[in-house]
Amino acid sequence: MFDRIEHYAGDPILGLVSQFVADENPNKVNLGIGVYYDEDGKMPVLECVKTAEERIADPIKPRPYLPMQGLAGHRKGCQDLLFGADAAVLQEERVATIATIGGSGALKVGAEFINQWFPDAECYVSDPTWGNHIAIFEGSNITVKKYPYYDKATNSVRFDDMIACLKGMNKNDVVLLHPCCHNPTGMDLTQAQWDEVLDVIKAGELIPFMDIAYQGFGEDMDTDAYAIRKAVDMGLPLFVSNSFSKNLSLYGERVGGLSVVCPTKEEAERVFGQLTFTVRRIYSSPPSHGGHVVDIVMNDDALHEQWVGEVYAMRDRIKAMRSKLQAVLEEKVPNQNFDYLTRQNGMFSFTGLTPEQVERLRAEYGIYMVSNSRMCVAGLNSDNIDYIANAMAAVLQD
Ligand code: PMP
After folding, report:
1. Shortest CA distance to 261 belongs to which of 115, 73, 89, 74?
2. Nearest CA to ligand 1 atom 8
3. Is residue 140 very low, low, confident or very high in pLDDT (cuts 50, 70, 90)?
4. DSSP state for residue 64 in the 8-state scheme
5. Where do the DSSP E strands lie in the chain?
6. Residue 346: CB within 6 Å of ligand 1?
7. Which atom of ligand 1 is nearest to the CA of 183?
8. Would the CB of 102 count as within 6 Å of ligand 1?
9. Which residues, listed in sequence order, are joined to residue 100 by a DSSP beta bridge?
10. Burial class (CB in 10 A: 0-12, 13-18, 19+), 285
């Protein structure tokens, strides 16, 4: 009966985790998965989250189902963060926001909605992008195509090629964009480039879908949302998926949001209804615990301020590791340019290593990166950075 079921080779990034766990090399370092580790190599529990957890636990309360759209405070938390608490678009009630099962859940609900209501739309993703973007949209029966994004030879954005590709898209095609901290390359558009991209999107009547999983890790909370807010100011329809996995260090709680910006309040109400119906028929309602943490941290002024400080501390540590790695590599491999490390933003760096070099790092040094050369810079710390730099220098020079 199940003979015809095809083998699933596993997810390339998640698969690295099990390989890493089984590795007996005492110096092993996991720079594969997109997770922030602190200076001690530990996943942090943020102080603001600890306070929220204490409030949730005292007294321990019953766990009713949440509504399909999640907690009101979770949804407001997403909206204020993405659009700015005083944004006119929020006062005008033109944004339909639901709490989702992480950023992945937001992408999935968005993809299902698009497939139902814009069945002819094709979805364009950056080349390269986070692999699950393609899998999620294709899994919702949407044709996925790529727009040029990254030039490995120069470690920069292929901006003219990207614009040319956008100009060839059809009305209502969906363009998946990373507002900050592009995954996997770490290379972001400048604000002037965003302005141009959004002009072309507007002229072509395309649908921008902005996926923001690292807000606060680039410049700051507001600057990282530049593209989102600019699209709103231009009056564009807009999908935004956001994740709190990284910036609240709440990976396993699965907290995120999906927001759809509409031209009118009346349309937003109908979109909201359809989003909740989409949720109802997939998983009915989102998980409760993480939703309460988001609600408490985002809506308590003191905790919110503390949270922003904690995110910026993570951001600053990553930036310091980027500079340090660049300095050590430039010293050890004098004929190569490593300035891409500090031109890139967020957790990831596209190192340009070949798949063979990535494999050598794993086999000989126990250093794990994704085979496309993506390194999670947030896995570096003062203890391991020299080891990693030496290993990279060795495989680059052989
Ligand atoms: N989008 C991007 C660009 C991501 O990097 C990730 C996480 N790796 C997600 C979405 C998914 O976020 P979550 O883990 O909250 O589902």
Report:
1. 89
2. 34
3. very high
4. P
5. 29-30, 95-101, 123-127, 144-148, 150-151, 156-157, 174-177, 207-212, 238-243, 255-261, 348-350, 367-368, 374-376
6. no
7. 3
8. yes
9. 256
10. middle
pTM, to two decimals = 0.96
Q: Give the total residue count for the chain.
A: 398
Q: For this complex, say whether ipTM is above 0.90.
A: yes
Residue 208 main-chain phi, psi, to 5 deg: -75, 135
Measured from the CB, is residue 214 less than 6 Å from ligand 1?
no
Q: Which residue type is seen at 221? A: M
pLDDT computed for residue 398 by the predictor:
78
34 lines ligand 1 (CB under 6 A): yes
pLDDT the model gives residue 105:
98
Of 391, 342, 349, give the one whose Cα is nearest residue 370: 349
- Cα of 4 vs centre of ligand 1, distance in Å, is 31
Question: Catalytic amino acids?
Answer: 130, 211, 246
Q: What is the pLDDT of residues 234-256, one digit of tens each?
A: 999 999 999 999 999 999 999 99
Across the chain, how many H-helices and E-strands are there? 15, 13
Q: What average pLDDT does range 384-392 have in this prediction?
A: 95
Going by the DSSP 8-state scheme, the letter that residue 96 receives in this structure is: E
pLDDT, mean of residues 154-180: 97
Q: What is the token pair recorded at 125?
A: 């993703």
